[in-house]
Amino acid sequence: MNENSIYTGFFSRSNLRLSIRNLSYLPRWIIIMIDLSVLIVAFFFTLIIFRGTGLQYINTSKDVVFISCFFGVNIFFFWLFRTYSGIIRHSSYIDAVKLLFSQMAVMVVFLVFNFVYELFYDERAFLTTALFINVVLSFCGLFLYRVVVKQTFELYLSEKSTTKLIRTIIYGTDANAISVANALKFETPTRFKIVGFVDRNNQNASKRMLDLPILVQKKKLPSLMRSVGAEAVIMADKSLEKEEQLIIVDQCLEFNYRVYTVPLITDWENQKEISQKVKNIQIEDLLERKPIVLDNKSISKQLKDKTVLISGAAGSIGSEIVRQVLTFSPKRVIILDQAETPLHHLSLELEKIHSKSKICNVIADVRNKEAMNRVFKLYKPQMVYHAAAYKHVPLMEENPSQAILTNIEGTKNLADLACEYNVKKFVMVSTDKAVNPSNVMGASKRIAEKYVQSLQIKNLKECNENATKFITTRFGNVLGSNGSVVPLFTKQIASGGPVTITHPDIIRYFMTIPEACQLVLEAGAMGNGGEIYIFDMGKPVKILDLAKKMIKLAGFIPERDIKIEVVGLRPGEKLYEELLNDTAKTIPTYHEKIMIAEEIQDEFENLHVDINELIGIANFFDNDDIVAKMKVIVPEFKSMNSTFEILDK
């Protein structure tokens, strides 16, 4: 290798970029030296300019002292305004303002000095106009070299990704949109090439922002994206209504354009954090509805300074109930679950909340009445949220005894102890699968509903004013809960497919976990005992459409990139779920999303005998006997796609 090739290799673009990137920041003394060099150049330029006009910048004979004072004062104001403290390659308008103030301060000081000097010596020490020109040149030089350094770092530090950048438009023109664009511009490695902004009001069509065009949306957004060659859109307009956002997302997904979302920017200084929050829009974002307005006063009155027991606390629903209950400052929260590891994870999470409420972790099984009795005796809860249950339909179809022992006997144990220890309110979390049940899981939850309702009737007959009030809440599928279809689809898409659905016509109601738990708290507060509250689940969603939308949101094309397979209905599965029994009616409440289902209620004595008999049968693990007895207690229980269909004949 010859000397010339070594020379050119050393100063190659790749080596230069590497060396610049490794230079994280300049020491402050170097910045001060560069600033001082700029001042010297500006000073001599001023001298030359005025010498050419025949004028003298400095009139005093003590020019050395004056020049020394001039540079000394400049350095003093550099220190005062800390112009050297910022990292040059991240210079902003704040640094420009600091430089301006420092130079203006220098000018003011020497104008005052000139005035005082003239009083004593009857002449001016320097030419005022020359000082002004000197200050202007100094500011321009100091600011210009910072801009040059900043642009150089942007040019060489930006990694040229081997993958093609995603041509993207930003939907929005407000401060939030500008902040997102700036953050993505400095992102390393770069993911997006921003090609413009979209102003939905079309008021700034002839203007530009960040040297990018503001695009006019005359037609649907996909048409505009096609015209500028965009492949994706980032939703950064926070004034968009939910309905408007859904329309735009559906339009983009129809043409296989990617859609990204970003939360509201509150810290515009941390641009790295902003860019990291730009993410693919999630299916949860599309299925969420308007925020629920809670009656916080009534919930707070019920929970503040009280002892609250939450069973199944480590589950997806139970853990969210725990989080929301803690916001109302209860005295003590008992989180109870038989699953050790999930309960431990929840406990660690709650430690970070720094709540004033005392949190008690209890590992116990609701099927063990002695263990439950010890919990009630020790803590004496005033409010119980019962979320512990087995909920997977196919598994309970194979193991009906476990559904009986957990969902029915476990509920019975807690409900009986709630009466014994004078718990104020007992809120049971149920499911829409309890309505006209077609599987063991749904039927077991319906029997549990019947039991807590029968206890309420018994208490009313006994005219006991201090008796426990039993309330049931019933809702459909919850997004993101354990075993939910959404996490399953996400996992299948991530592994390259196929995405499996049980039937092309199957539909389900969905709501988010926080939404469901908010309504549980609200229903618990408004309940007077005996009610079965059903929630407004919105419009039902076709699972096939949900699968296609999730595939598109992940950036793939259904059936081409990710296959969708129909595997057939699982045992006990319906094509659609119901929130009401055929014979039931609804009564509205003061909350628009909560209604009361009027179900036929059973007498305590007869139901008590039947349930005790069912629990006894369950302990012998004879599946046919168990399900046959369940069908006696719940006559509307008709098995579907199950081996137990023969028992309906």
Automatic annotation (TrEMBL):
Q: Does the keyword Methyltransferase apply?
A: no
Using the record's annotation, list all stretches that form the Polysaccharide biosynthesis protein CapD-like domain: 308-598
Q: Which residues cross the membrane?
A: 29-52, 64-81, 93-113, 125-145
The UniProt keywords, alphabetically, are: Membrane, Transmembrane, Transmembrane helix
Give the highest taxon in the source lineage. Bacteria
InterPro entries, from UniProt? Polysac_CapD-like, Polysaccharide_Synthase-Rel
Pfam families linked: CoA_binding_3, Polysacc_synt_2
Provide the protein name. Answer: Polysaccharide biosynthesis protein
